[in-house]
Amino acid sequence: MAVKTPPRPTMPDTKLAELMTLLGGSDTVELKLTLPAGQQRAAISSLGLDPLDAQIRQVVFFDTPDLALDRAGVVVRARRIQGRPGDSVVKLRPLDPPDRVGDPVRRLEGFGVEVDAMPDRFVCSGRLKAEADSGAVHKVLLGERAPRKLFTKAQRAFFREHAPNGVELDELAVLGPIFVLKAKWQPRDHARKVVAEMWLYPDGTRIFELSTKCLPSEAFQVAAEERVYLGEHGIDLSGEQQTKTRTALEFFARELATG
Questions:
Q1: Alpha helices, DSSP H, located in 66-163
Q2: E strand segments, 38-120
């Protein structure tokens, strides 16, 4: 469904100016919405999502036990993916301004700048992504392989440039894994593809996220269209938002501290 005149974003002018600056320096925008547990089942039914279409993934993060990388704005992650190669990522978040990294890094294969936008916040990140063998990721989880071997030479250099002094990849704690179910589909009554992810944490809690990607120049238009589409399916956009990475890091850090 197309919306010809999207409403003006309801945010202070200072935040709107900040968002416009971030959009101007980014490559893509991902619009995200997380739903509380009480709304997830109804949303899955209303959107026509078939759980059997979901792909199984395992996600693992790497950080110090006291989350020194997180405090420095560095995220290190690897994924195993059902039926296809996995991947590894070194990410800077927040990346503000987007040109904080120089042109040589921007030109690296696998590097991108993205704005993640939720109903109540937004953040810009820069990530260097590479393919990683799922079997190799599994060996790291089992303690049979050093974490650094999941990352390319360029990723390791990117990590060294931005990680706190003295923090080495092979000294990082393994935070995870987390099982994730991911489905991408094209709703019959909607013009854009939608992605759904269900993150299943070891304590039984879960985060259900809906998202779609677009170009920065389309962000406000697509946000308005998504708001209309989700509203027509009875999905409330006003609930408290959760972030998958933050929840994972804090959960496993507590587990390390009490273990």
A1: 68-71, 103-106, 134-141, 153-162
A2: 55-63, 74-81, 84-92, 111-118
Whether the predicted pLDDT of 6 surpasses 50? no
Indicate whether 155 belongs to any domain.
yes
Instruction: Read off the pLDDT of each residue in 157-174 and give the average, rounded to a whole number.
Output: 96
Copy the structure tokens of residue 124.
């810009």
H-only helix segments in the chain: 13-24, 37-46, 68-71, 103-106, 134-141, 153-162, 219-232, 244-258
Q: How far apart are CA 75 and CA 163, in angstroms?
A: 9
SS3 76: strand
The conformation of residue 10, written as its DSSP 8-state character, comes to -
The residue behind tokens 């509203």 is: 231
- 7 occurs within a structural domain: no
The reply to whether 149 falls in a domain is: yes
205 in a structural domain: yes
Beta bridge partner(s), residue 35: 208
Q: In angstroms, rounded to a whole number, what is the distance separating the alpha carbons of residues 189 and 123?
A: 30
148 CB neighbour count, 10 Å cutoff? 16
DSSP reduced 3-state for 71: helix
Task: Give residue 45's pLDDT band: very low, low, confident or very high (50, 70, 90).
Answer: very high
Q: Which two tokens stand for residue 204?
A: 């039984």
Domain count, the chain: 1
